[in-house]
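Support request, please re-run this one:
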Amino acid sequence: MLESLKPQPQDKILQLIALYRDDPRADKIDLGVGVYKDATGLTPVMRAVKAAERQLWEIETTKTYTGLAGEPAFAAAMIAMILGEGFEGRAAAVATPGGTGAIRQALELIKLSAPGAKVWLSDPTWPNHPSIIKYLGMESAEYRYFDAATCGIDFAGLLEDLGRVSAGDVVLLHGCCHNPTGANLDMGQWAQVVDLLLARGAVPFVDLAYQGFGDGLQEDAAATRLIASSFPEVLIAASCSKNFGIYRERTGILIALADPTRKALVQGNLAFLNRQNYSFPPDHGARLVTMILADPALRADWQAELEEVRLNMLSLRQSLAHELRRATNSDRYDFVAHHRGMFSRLGLSEAQVMELRDRFGVYMVGDSRINIAGLNARTVPILAAAIAAVGG
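Re-run finished. Output below.
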């Protein structure tokens, strides 16, 4: 049986991690992997997470299974954090192994309920989106998003492409901090997208992996809240990896908004899908998140540290834009300061990306996406000088 297996394409980011690890140069710079790093290169455990873990160690009395959907308190806390109040009657939800698990379960739900639905993806998008869709045998299409010439949004192209969406199609939207580009719609543009998709009869599917990393915890939820209040049905896949720093705990949630009369039906189907894929979801990270969001002191400390993280990335963006302007004697990289989140796509060619790796030990994805959080005050001018040296 196993001899009939075929080699599968390797994940480009995982390949990049291996290449970086094997590079012996002491001054190499890793801008590929999508994790937050502080000025020392460490991905720290957040203070509130440590405090919650100490409390949990004292009070936890069992490691028995949680429910198929996870703990209701986790779902309630996450729904309130993402959507605010007033959605409890419409929101079915299940805990998932990370944001990726939430995306997979959402696609499984789409396939179960509307097997002929086409899923529309931004061009570009996170590579795992089309990978999972292809694996599931679902139909997909792209809508224009990023303008490579300006490193901004091709909004006219976006509207033109979404104008071809059919009723019942699903449109996957990045709720904030677009990955891989860092270019985000403003609220006026979001309102136009909402009006268009309502007119087309589409179902929005929001990937919210970076709430709190862009303009603030509440600000980053604004687009998702607008969508949730505008459409009868919405899918939201959210991750706690970045904003709580619990990457390895694999903590995520899938929220499905529906008519209140169908909430129980949707909840039952979500639990069914969990049972088919992994039965009971992991609980440790979800419990920590619940404790933090429910405790005023822990929540305040978490939000303060999250804001420190956000402001650090914003400062790095501003510094890099300044250094690139100085090194290249051009304003072509000023967009870096206006993008948000962990990532920006710099608009370099693949040949320039390879030259940066070979000559300077600077590792970034082939499309020139960089993780801003992989930089620090020492490496920002080094990167700017290297980009100038390869003709960027």
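The chain has two domains: 9-44+310-389, 48-294. Residues 143 and 161 are 5 Å apart (CA to CA).
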